[in-house]
């Protein structure tokens, strides 16, 4: 990790609009999360005006193409945009293909567009655990809009709700009966629904199914808008941007954003604590760890050979850890 002085120099260049410093700091936060604590005091009161838009939905819905086309229209409106695309990582090596940048080559020469692919590093919520730190950097840099594209793992992608100001759920006509399953997750978090690949058979029926599902809720006085798009040729994407901007123009939006940002910071705290606890448990549960006290080593051994059930042992383990404080 660079020295504190070197980090401060990078932050100064970031705030001056140096894109290379932004990239380097993102890399550092991905690899060494503690870096955020060293630079946060200098960036926490900068930026904060970006509109963070989450793009989520099932695999194959066309999220990357939609994000790319949406970025084009955002740039045409005179705004800058950062695209943070989260790709799935290997459960064995932790590596990731990071292929979203390949599908967004049309933006490479535009200085007003920043594209970064990151690995979800095993996170089950659709986004990387470093998302909070990276979006904080992107806001400090001064981007007007930040697009968060999730990995596409279905209804578990609820992290996008906690990290975004506006959530766009993308589905396709072929989703069919799967919309009934989605009601337990993605259906509830959407501010806007997009039926992409609307040239395919069943698009109108999909719109009706989504609307019917929304109307099943107890309070459906203000239903989320549904937009049909064909992102590969740009159809309907401008209409989507208009819906997004309409939501942002709502008089209640600033108050809602303040609440969302507060909840986002607390959720980042929770996620970080869970990661620290998981790392600690990995060390404790390592077989024959010489640092474990006899009672702890005995408990682990009893579970390993089947003398004690894991549920009871978990509570005993927590009590032992508390006692060692």
Structural class: alpha/beta
Average pLDDT: 81
Strand coverage percent: 5-15%
> What count of structural domains?
3
Count of distinct strands: 7
Could you tell me the radius of gyration in angstroms?
22 Å
Lateral strand order in the biggest sheet: 3-2-4-1-5-6-7
CATH class of the largest domain: Alpha Beta
Helix content percent band: 40-55%
> In the CATH hierarchy, what is the superfamily of the largest domain?
P-loop containing nucleotide triphosphate hydrolases
Shape: globular
Q: Short description, anyone?
A:
The protein is of the alpha/beta class and 325 residues long.
How is this fold's topology laid out?
Elements: H1 4-15, H2 19-31, H3 35-43, E1 51-56, H4 63-76, E2 81-87, E3 113-119, H5 131-141, E4 145-149, H6 159-163, E5 166-171, H7 178-182, H8 186-189, E6 192-195, H9 203-215, E7 226-228, H10 237-248, H11 253-284, H12 294-304, H13 310-323
Parallel strand pairs: 1-4, 1-5, 2-3, 2-4, 5-6, 6-7
Helix pairs in contact: 1-2, 1-3, 2-5, 4-10, 12-13
């Amino acid at each position: 990790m660079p020295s504190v002085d070197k980090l401060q120099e990078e932050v100064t260049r970031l705030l001056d609009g140096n894109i290379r410093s932004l990239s380097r700091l993102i890399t550092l936060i991905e690899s060494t999360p503690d870096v955020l604590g060293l630079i946060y005091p200098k960036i926490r009161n900068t930026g904060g005006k970006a509109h963070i838009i989450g793009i989520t939905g099932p695999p194959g819905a066309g999220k990357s193409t939609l994000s790319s086309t949406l970025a084009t229209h955002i740039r045409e409106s005179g705004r800058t945009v950062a695209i943070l695309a989260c790709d799935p990582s290997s459960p064995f090596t932790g590596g990731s293909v990071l292929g979203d940048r390949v599908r967004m080559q049309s933006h490479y020469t535009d200085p007003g567009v920043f594209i970064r692919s990151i690995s979800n590093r095993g996170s089950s919520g659709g986004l990387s655990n470093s998302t909070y730190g990276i979006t904080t950097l992107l806001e400090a840099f001064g981007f007007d809009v930040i697009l968060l594209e999730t990995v596409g793992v279905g209804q578990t992608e609820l992290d996008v709700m906690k990290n975004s100001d506006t959530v766009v759920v993308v589905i396709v006509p072929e989703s069919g009966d799967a919309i009934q399953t989605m009601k337990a997750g993605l259906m509830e978090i959407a501010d806007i629904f997009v039926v992409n690949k609307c040239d395919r058979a069943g698009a109108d029926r999909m719109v009706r199914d989504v609307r019917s599902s929304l109307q099943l809720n107890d309070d459906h006085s203000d239903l989320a808008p549904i937009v049909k798009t064909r992102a590969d040729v740009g159809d309907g994407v401008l209409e989507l941007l208009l819906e997004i901007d309409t939501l942002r123009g709502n008089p209640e939006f600033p108050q809602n954003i303040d609440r969302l940002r507060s909840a986002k910071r607390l959720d980042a705290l929770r996620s970080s604590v869970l990661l620290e606890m998981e790392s600690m448990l990995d060390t404790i549960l390592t077989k024959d760890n010489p640092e474990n006290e006899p009672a702890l080593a005995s408990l682990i051994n009893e579970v390993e050979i089947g003398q004690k059930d894991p549920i009871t042992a978990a509570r005993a383990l927590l009590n032992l850890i508390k006692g060692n404080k």
